[in-house]
Amino acid sequence: MSEQNKIPQATARRLPLYYRFLNNLHAQEKFRVSSKELSEAVKVDSATIRRDFSYFGALGKKGYGYNVEYLLGFFRKTLDQDDVTNIVLIGVGNLGTAFLQYNFTKNNNTKIEMAFDADKSKVGQEIGGVPVYHIDELEDKISDITVAILTVPVSEAQNITDRLVQTGASGILNFTPARITVPEGVRVHHIDLAVELQSLVYFIKHYPLDEVDGSQ
Ligand code: ATP
Fold first, then answer.
1. How far apart are CA 43 and CA 24, in angstroms?
2. How far is the CA of 106 from the centre of ligand 1 (A)?
3. Is 18 in the pocket of ligand 1 (CB under 6 A)?
């Protein structure tokens, strides 16, 4: 999307955060919001918010703040909220099952369409309303899938990634500890929950917040 290309990546990463909060405001029939209010809610400093919003052509008015409706309209367009993005999940273990049961559509239009597993006892089930197919059916079932959530064992991660890339996946949300390799043009976001937890504990121990002027 050309419009989105102009937005710095760091700003783009904050979009879903803003979007979720503004959606809540909208549901509560609030029509405007100040950058201070936003800042407290999403934990991003207000100077950053003002800079981010200036990329969207939203220049808050002094004493008025931002127009919620306008911002939501922009975010919907930019995040493609009006088109449901097709998502598949590979590996219906403990973590995969939790994701299938988690209702992503509460906050936006992303929805897991189908899931795949190698374990025959899981195939044919429906979890959280999502059908589970055998991994052998991957290439037959997915056509215009854009994003795949990877929750397979680490030893399977690269092999499954290669198959996903072959079938045209453009994004992979990797929850395995494996560092997977993909060709240029395929985007991988890596979320290693164990590492995140370990790093949080490390930071709490070594960099207590009151010693670093409250920065995150
Ligand atoms: P569980 O207790 O259900 O095994 P887990 O998260 O501890 O969950 P893992 O060994 O991490 O289990 O495997 C996650 C899931 O990935 C399992 O459901 C497993 O059957 C599935 N899986 C393993 N290999 C593949 C594969 N090649 N393709 C698809 N799914 C696979």
1. 16
2. 27
3. no
Give the SS3 label for residue 114. Answer: strand
Does residue 89's CB lie within 6 angstroms of at least one atom of ligand 1?
A: no
Domains (ranges, CATH) in the chain?
Answer: 2-77 (1.10.10.10), 85-194 (3.40.50.720)
Q: Please tell me if the CB atom of residue 116 comes closer than 6 angstroms to any atom of ligand 1.
A: yes
Nearest CA to ligand 1 atom 9: 153
| Rounded CA separation 176/150 (Å) | 7
Q: How confident is the model over 46-50, as a mean pLDDT?
A: 88
Pocket probe mutation, ligand 1, options 116, 156, 161, 163, max atoms within 8 Å of Cβ: 156
Q: Are 72 and 28 in contact (CB under 8 A)?
A: no
Percent of the chain surpassing pLDDT 90: 44
* Residue among 63, 68, 57, 56 at smallest CA distance from 32: 68
Amino acid at 101: Q
Task: Encode pLDDT of 58-86 as tens digits.
Answer: 666 666 788 898 888 888 777 766 666 78
Q: Quick check: 136 pLDDT over 50?
A: yes
Locus of tokens 């803003």: 18
Query: Best mutation site among 95, 97, 119, 174 for ligand 1, i.e. most ligand atoms within 8 A of its Cβ?
Result: 119
Kindly give the interhelix angle for 9-27 and 46-55, rounded to the nearest 10 degrees. Answer: 100
Cβ of residue 165 lying under 6 Å from some atom of ligand 1: no
Closest CA to 88 of 116, 51, 125: 116
